[in-house]
């Protein structure tokens, strides 16, 4: 039987141990709270559509209502939305674990942003939105997880396309600073009011639930983007005005500190 006890050599070490243990239990409590709130949010998000789908199906099975293809289509659409919710929930939980699992490389940030720009050109065009890319024409390199940063920028640009009306314009660009790289996305879209602005990065938050439901959003895109940016010690800033548009700024340090 090997003795695995850690020797303690005086009151200072006992104090240090107590501090470490307290920090650990505070961190565990935070994770516990996070899980609890996640369960609450999910249950809330699932209950209403489940109840209504069940009662509609029961009424059809019992012959109270005739089988109606339009209703089936509605139930089908709702199930598609819920399955998207599940996929995004998984992505969010991966994103929040990402601070432990980033694969860091030195990445050309102009290439990265330009790739996202090209990916979204067809979608913007089909909505008659002008999508531009601003190349700073100076080398912009940062130590990041490429795939995860592509996801961050894609989520922001995808929203810009989703929440900008035909005829609008989106500008995606890169700015280099000695310590940080900034990727910005400006749109002339519908904007976000001051009553929603503080909450849009919260999971499952949608500024206009009816509109977002129609556009197929589940309210997780920005929380995923934020968690991934934070896994790089980065930030996402937002300024927006209703009817004018939104400015998103993603900032990541050029040197990754694990
Ligand atoms: P969703 O799936 O609803 O798009 P997000 O987390 O990506 O969820 O965004 C949260 C909410 O923030 C959206 O429902 C929308 O109301 C608002 N929002 C996000 N990006 C924009 C934008 N570029 N313009 C206007 N509103 C936006």
UniProtKB/TrEMBL annotation:
Keywords: ATP-binding, Cell membrane, Kinase, Membrane, Nucleotide-binding, Phosphoprotein, Transferase, Transmembrane, Transmembrane helix, Two-component regulatory system. It comes from the Bacteria. This is histidine kinase. It is a multi-pass membrane protein. Its EC number is 2.7.13.3. It catalyses: ATP + protein L-histidine = ADP + protein N-phospho-L-histidine. It is an enzyme of class 2 (transferase). Residues 1-33 form the HAMP domain. It is found in: Cell membrane. Residues 41-256 form the Histidine kinase domain. GO terms for molecular function: kinase activity. Coiled coil: none annotated. Signal peptide: none annotated. It comes from Paenibacillus gyeongsangnamensis. The lineage of its organism: Bacteria, Bacillati, Bacillota, Bacilli, Bacillales. The chain holds residues 193 to 450 of 450 of the full protein.
């Amino acid at each position: 039987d090997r003795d695995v006890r850690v020797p303690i050599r005086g009151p200072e070490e006992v104090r240090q141990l107590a501090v470490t243990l307290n920090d650990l239990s505070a961190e565990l409590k935070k994770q516990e709270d996070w899980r609890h709130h996640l369960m609450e949010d999910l249950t809330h998000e699932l209950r209403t559509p489940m109840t209504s789908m069940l009662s509609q199906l029961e009424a059809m099975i019992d012959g109270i209502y005739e089988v109606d293809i339009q209703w089936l289509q509605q139930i089908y659409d709702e199930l598609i939305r819920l399955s998207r919710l599940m996929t995004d929930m998984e992505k969010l939980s991966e994103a929040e674990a990402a601070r432990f699992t980033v694969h860091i490389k030195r990445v050309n940030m102009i290439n990265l942003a330009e790739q996202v720009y090209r990916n979204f050109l067809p979608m913007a065009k089909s909505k008659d939105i002008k999508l531009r890319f601003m190349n700073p024409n100076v080398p912009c390199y940062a130590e990041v997880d490429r795939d995860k940063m592509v996801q961050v920028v894609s989520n922001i640009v995808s929203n810009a396309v989703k929440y900008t009306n035909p005829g609008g314009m989106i500008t995606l660009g890169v700015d280099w600073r000695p310590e940080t790289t900034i990727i910005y996305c400006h749109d002339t879209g519908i904007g976000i009011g001051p009553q929603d602005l503080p909450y849009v990065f919260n999971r499952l938050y949608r500024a206009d639930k009816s509109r977002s439901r129609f556009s197929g959003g589940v309210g997780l895109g920005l929380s995923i983007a934020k968690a991934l940016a934070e896994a790089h010690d980065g930030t996402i800033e937002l300024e927006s005005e209703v009817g004018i548009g939104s400015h998103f700024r993603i900032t990541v340090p050029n040197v990754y500190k694990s």
